[in-house]
Amino acid sequence: MHTPKSLVAFTLYMATIHSALAVPLYPAEDVTLTNLEIRAAPVAGPSKGHPIKATMEVNDNNALPFDADYYAILCLGKDPIFQRDGSESKDNRKDAGVKKTFPGGKGTGPFRNPTMANVKIPGSQYVSPEEFPFASTTQGGHQAILFPVSEASQDSQGGALNSFYNKHHIQSAHQGKNSWYEITGWSGQLGPYCKALQNNKGKTNKNDPICKTGSNGKGKWGFDVGEYTYTYDDHSYHKAQGSK
C-alpha cells in the first residue's frame, strides 16, 4: 500500500513531540544556586552595609576609655561602624599625634607633655592618649579624637577589644573578609556617656542633654571626658570641634 508523504511527515512530527514531552525537565544547577544565593541573608562582616553587630563588655578597669569613645559617637557624631585592620595601627597612631615627641619632653604624645602640646589633663595619672576611632581600624589615624586616660585603663581596653574581635570572629582586613563591625550594645560597668548612648540606641544625638556644655558628664573617675577632647592636625593639637 502506498502511504502519502504528508501522512509520513505528520507521523514523524507527532513522534518528535511525544519524545520531547517525555524528557524530564530539571532546572540547571547553576540557576538553582543563583536563586539560593539571592534568597540567602547577607553574610555579616564583608562590608560597611553588612557589619558584624555585637555587644561590647565593659568592666570597671576600662570604663573610662570606652566612655570617651562613646562621647565621640553620641556628642561629636563619629560613625559607630568600623573596619578592623591591625596592619595600620602603627601608622594610625603616628597620624593621630600619639607618637609626637617634644624637645626636652617626657615620652610621646600630648598628655605627657601638656604644656608644650597646649592641652589640659585632669590629673597626673591621665597621660595615655585614647584614640577614637580605634587605631586598629581603617577609620583611625588622621583627625582621630584624643582623650587623656590612665595607662592601666587603656591596657584593659586593649584586652577587651582583642577579646571582642576573637569572640565575634572579626578579621583584620588584610587577613580576611569579615572585617566590618558595629557595636550595638554595651553591658557591664558603664560610664555616663555609654549609658546615654545606650538610651539613644547607639546612635548620635548631639541634642542629648549630657552633650551640652555645663552638663554633668562626670564618671566615677571624677571628670567629664568631654572637657578633655583634642585632635591633631599634623602640627599641633586643638580642641575637638563641637566638644565641651
TrEMBL record:
<dbReference type="InterPro" id="IPR029476">
    <property type="entry name" value="DNase_NucA_NucB"/>
</dbReference>
<feature type="domain" description="Deoxyribonuclease NucA/NucB">
    <location>
        <begin position="88"/>
        <end position="173"/>
    </location>
</feature>
<feature type="compositionally biased region" description="Basic and acidic residues">
    <location>
        <begin position="84"/>
        <end position="98"/>
    </location>
</feature>
<feature type="signal peptide">
    <location>
        <begin position="1"/>
        <end position="22"/>
    </location>
</feature>
<keyword id="KW-0732">Signal</keyword>
<protein>
    <recommendedName>
        <fullName>Deoxyribonuclease NucA/NucB domain-containing protein</fullName>
    </recommendedName>
</protein>
<feature type="region of interest" description="Disordered">
    <location>
        <begin position="84"/>
        <end position="115"/>
    </location>
</feature>
<dbReference type="Pfam" id="PF14040">
    <property type="entry name" value="DNase_NucA_NucB"/>
</dbReference>
